[in-house]
Design brief:
This protein is an all-alpha fold and 72 residues long. It has 2 helices and no strands.
Length: 72
C-alpha cells in the first residue's frame, strides 16, 4: 500500500493537478433511483412506496419464514 505523506494538500503543493470532473469509462447505467425521485412519478406511486416502507417492519415481525429479527 502506498500513502502520500501530507495527502491531497502535499500533492497540490508539489504542483500536481487535481481532477474536478467525473471521468467514466462509460456512462453509469446502474444507478438506483427511489420511486419518489424525479418529476415523472405520480404522487400516488410515491405515497404507495412510502406506505410500503412504513409497513415493512410490521411485515417482517409477523413473517414466520424470514430470519430477520426486528429490534424495537
Amino acid at each position: 500500500m502506498l500513502i502520500l505523506a501530507g495527502g491531497t494538500e502535499a500533492w497540490h503543493a508539489a504542483g500536481y493537478g487535481l481532477d474536478s470532473e467525473a471521468n467514466y469509462l462509460s456512462e453509469p447505467i446502474d444507478v438506483y433511483k427511489r420511486p419518489y425521485e424525479g418529476t415523472d412519478n405520480a404522487r400516488a406511486n410515491m405515497q404507495a412506496y412510502i406506505d410500503w416502507e412504513l409497513e415493512l417492519v410490521a411485515q417482517l415481525a409477523n413473517d414466520g419464514v424470514s430470519n430477520f429479527h426486528v429490534v424495537r
